[in-house]
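[Q] Does anyone have a clean structure-token version of this?
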Amino acid sequence: MGNLLIHMRSRAAPGLLHATLALALLFGVAPVALAQTGTVSGIIADSKTRRPLADALVRVEGSEAFSRTNGRGQFQLNGLSGTTVRLRVSRIGYQPLTTDATVGAPPVRIELSELIVKLDEIVVTGTAGEQQQRTLGNVIGKVDVSNTVVIAPPAKLQDMLSVNVPGVRVIRASGAIGSGGITRIRGSGSLSLSNAPLVYVDGIRVANLDAVPSEAFFGAQESPSAINALNPEEIESIEILKGPSAATIYGTEASNGVIQIITKRGKQGRPTFEAKFDAGVNYLQNPVGRYDPNYYISALDGQVHSFDVLAFNEKYCAVAAHNCPVSPFTTGTPIAMGASLSGGNDQLSYFVSAGGSRDEGYVSYNWLNKFTSRANISYRAPGDKFKVDVSLGVVRSRLRGASGFQPITTSILWACNFPGCEPDYSNGGQDSSTTGWNGPGHGYQFYRPEDYNHVFAYDDLNKTTASVTIRHAPTPWFRQHLTIGPDYSNDKSSNLVERVPNGPFFDLSNGFKSGAELSGVFFTADYGASADWAVNKTLIATSSAGVQYYHKQFDRLHATGQTFAIPGPSDITGAADRQADEFFQENKTFGVYAQEQVGWNNRVFLTAALRGDGNSAFGKNFKAVYYPKLSASWVASEEPAVAKLGWLSQLKVRAAWGRAGNQPDVFSAIQTYRGVVGHGGIGGVTP
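[A] Here you go.
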């Protein structure tokens, strides 16, 4: 498969034109007057992406003057004396930089280089509250999504995880639009239970099904993946927990790892409007040369001959009288557009976005229409003692699957495999124009590309995720947080094979309709608190404790109907043979944890934690399960002896040990008896 993508993005701020004219007048007409103000201003940007950096700290060496960059990376220092000053610029995750600037000169542009190891970067995944990377003995993978989507927009969110985080693999079944893959973090850990990692969005657990059951993929070994419903344009970063500490914070279902998705927030500064437009093509490269030819034994000479159904149709179907498509493949034209508005002040910030897309595959009946929107609001009280983050995301999509019966590729592989492939020359060649590959099948043994005009496979998804996170720090040594919110999803899918007399779809040619509706509900409540204790000037202990409650529920209804009374479409009610089944699953987890961390000179950290979980699937004879964890971290590069080495910039030594598990799900227990439908429709039980 090949694709070509054109990606355009623009940013603007209200009043930008007026501000630009004012600056031009100020710098161009009155440079002498500007110098007298004692001001240095400019922009701080990333040296790789050239994007402005917010929250960078700019200090003037030898004075107390400093400034922080706003959402557009701008800073301004006032009240400076002299003609030049030395600036020191720093930001978490970037190499500090020192440079000279002329007082009263035009705005300067300073670019910072990103650090490979970001020891001071704050992480929230797998930690009891926010912690710096330097304190962790376990590894946390991170993807800077906001910058990555600018450089190389991914087709699916799973693709971004697979190529950016070591140890994370996504196993794809096909390249069909709407299909997903199986995500594995450091391989599989269970032979019978789920191996899918947990997925969180802004601290709220969401549906993490690797393979969502969908009638739109009725005839294929593929399914959608729940994580791909999210829009990368709304995401700031992704943190992936791969170590044993997953169970300490996230409980008995976290042994397969945790994917924490952090959406974008508004930053201090004037309102910023950003818009993007993507367009491209999606096609299958060299389809004729991609598939091997088939072979048959000729009735004329008894020899084995090859037959390439795609190459044959390029010539045969080019004749208008034959009324067949030259190729089963087409060129899709995916497009996407979206916009966002963000901004705020030092107390209230906002981020609002909306986007729509149409993704088309390399067969005409495979496409995905999607609409996403998000609204995030953050409030910060003076002094940072009280913070509130509110997040709301909505996804609406409609997919038409490429394998409502079976992928057309299977028919290509089965072409001309059985007797009847070769035209019939037994009567002097008089039937050679209406039999074999010259007949109605034009080389296909079973279903042809045009037969998919009678197959309609759809999947409609409605998803809403909301979260509220409250952080409270009444004193410098005590802090607490509460995160609460639901995730709702409703996936309604259907598959219709119209009744076609003497049709090519085997028994389904008599008419077939299936429908399914899968509803999922997740609810998360998470409270944690931490307290710092200064044993002495160099030794600080941090005690943390928390309690969590998770609830998940799946409800699925499924029905099928076969054999319609008349040709054409119908519904399940109009089928002669109807069947239905129902599935319901509910699971609840209540857990508590305690953690103690000791830090020495902000370089050496030792952490011990214990978590206990109770789960509704454990049964009355098994009350709870406990998961311990031990870890150590040493920032060796900050030791005085090591810091003198000019060739070594950063060095961290870490180690972690822990226990994790995966709970049995509902109905996983060995059942003595279960209900079945017996002979003649009478109810019964079976061992």
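[Q] Thanks! Anything notable?
[A] Confidence is low (pLDDT under 50) at residues 13-36.
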